[in-house]
Amino acid sequence: MLTDKIDELLKEVSALSAKNAEDVEQLRLKYLSKKGEINAIIADFRNVAKEEKRELGIKINELKKAATDKINALREQVETTETASESLDLTRTAYPVDLGTRHPLTLVRNEIIDIFQRMGFTLYNGPEVDDDKHVFTMLNFAADHPARDMQDTFFISQNPNDVTKNVLLRSHTSGDEAHYMETHEPPIRVLCPGRVYRNEAISARAHCFFHQVEGLYVDKGVSFTDLKQVLLTFAREMFGADTKIRLRPSFFPFTEPSAEMDISCSICGGKGCNFCKHTGWVEILGCGMVDPHDLAACNIDPEVYTGYAFGMGVERIANLKYGVNDLRLFSENDTRFLEEFQSAY
């Protein structure tokens, strides 16, 4: 009887075992190949009476599934055993391992931090997702300032009743200084590095995110002369002892007076070249004396304390230091570009 044959094969299949991959293949051929046991039963199935076909068809499908599952399980078991039994040849030559380097922006950021830490600045890392109050309001930005526009800043949520509660990706690390002044009393000497975001079209000269390092010093009797000397020391440490600086009047909402700082071109030595547009000078940062409004907003008495602040783009410094002329290279993860900085590490 065909039913008895199916029951007999089911018992055989459930008791199958194999020692290696060759045994598994022999079992597959015996039961599942075109000339195997199960296909022979299927051939005999054509001669079964019509009223018996439904029940026998179900049993044949069960047999085929049981054989397939059992043989697959044996194959997996054998492969696992063979893999585990492979011995490790300790005399074999090691695979070549390519050692990476620190990213050029990390190199420059660390160098900037090291210079200012040696001048007494401590590090503070603020939130990348911040509120309007710390990023704009406490820093004296006017209510209609362009930076508060969706075309300039990435807003996450906006509060129509209170703009200070708007949530955004910080557009500068100056907001970190507001956070720090809120929770610390003078004297304050802090450095705030971090990633910032602005709604810019991505090109060789601009990106929607970049890195900044900003510094703040608040104490009694702090003057613009103190700021100039600190920045001169930084410029000479970063770009060489012969580096000169100049300060040009500028405007920032959170400093007064404000200035842009240029350094003498390190390529032509100040004589004029294509890099410095034949001026002999290259702009690297903005700075100024902290506006009394900012101090008062952070509960620091502007009649007693004064301070200075400065901020620079890490990419800008890296461009000057390594001659990188396309900002996009810093974030493309191209190992060919990154390998060029192995000697700088």
UniProtKB/TrEMBL annotation:
The keyword Acetylation does not apply. It holds the Pfam family Phe_tRNA-synt_N. Residues 6-84 form a coiled coil. Binds 2 magnesium ions per tetramer. Mg(2+) binds at residue 256. PROSITE patterns: AA_TRNA_LIGASE_II. The keyword Membrane does not apply. Its EC number is 6.1.1.20. Keywords: Aminoacyl-tRNA synthetase, ATP-binding, Coiled coil, Cytoplasm, Ligase, Magnesium, Metal-binding, Nucleotide-binding, Protein biosynthesis. Residues 108-320 form the Aminoacyl-transfer RNA synthetases class-II family profile domain. Its cofactor is Mg(2+). It catalyses: tRNA(Phe) + L-phenylalanine + ATP = L-phenylalanyl-tRNA(Phe) + AMP + diphosphate + H(+). Its main location: cytoplasm. It comes from the Bacteria. One of its GO terms (molecular function) is phenylalanine-tRNA ligase activity. It is found in: Cytoplasm. NCBIfam families: pheS (TIGR00468). Belongs to the class-II aminoacyl-tRNA synthetase family. Phe-tRNA synthetase alpha subunit type 1 subfamily. Tetramer of two alpha and two beta subunits. This is Phenylalanine--tRNA ligase alpha subunit. It comes from Hallella faecis. The lineage of its organism: Bacteria, Pseudomonadati, Bacteroidota, Bacteroidia, Bacteroidales. The gene is pheS.
